[in-house]
User: What shape does this take?
Amino acid sequence: MPRRSRQAKAGGCRRSNQRTTAGQAGLKVIFRAAYGLTDRDYRADPKDLDRILGHVRQIAVVLTENADTLFAVQAGFLGPWGKWHGFNWGDPPSLDVRRATLFALLDSVPAPIPIQVRRPMFIRDIFATEAKGFDLTEAAAFGGSRLSRIGWHDDAFLALPDDMGTYVEPAWDRQRELRWCERHDRYVPFGGETVGQSEATPIEQVVREME
Assistant: This one.
């Protein structure tokens, strides 16, 4: 029992120190949880969805305690690096699993902290059956709806032709994707990272997409 007590106190100190460090530096945190962070971690997730959703709710308690230092929460959890591929229940995970995970995060992480998913198509297919659809309008932005809190992150930014699976929805080419993203990203945070393949992207394309 004493050993467990010391571990709990140490964990609490780590959370406190991280919060103080970010806050004192005037920084915000982008948080993502994952069950594995290497190429060996494909399908390393729990096969029990209820266990994953339980972890979402547990982590959300800590996120709520540190809400003032959060910029955004990336949906994570599913697949290696939490990037929603290579998961036990599909590649990408099935629509039902993605919807359950995203809505659990929305319900558990305090508003108005935004949640980011890995591909824009995940926003569209998850919200396609919602009453107001998947197009975020100026009138609906910042209104507190689920859709108004959903951004996305491109973790292969500018890697032509499809940013390593970012833009792969059937019948949606890159230009159609970018037009949709331009409208949606006016109201929600967008982020990501570049990869080696991005070095070959023509500078004109870089400027156009960053605009």
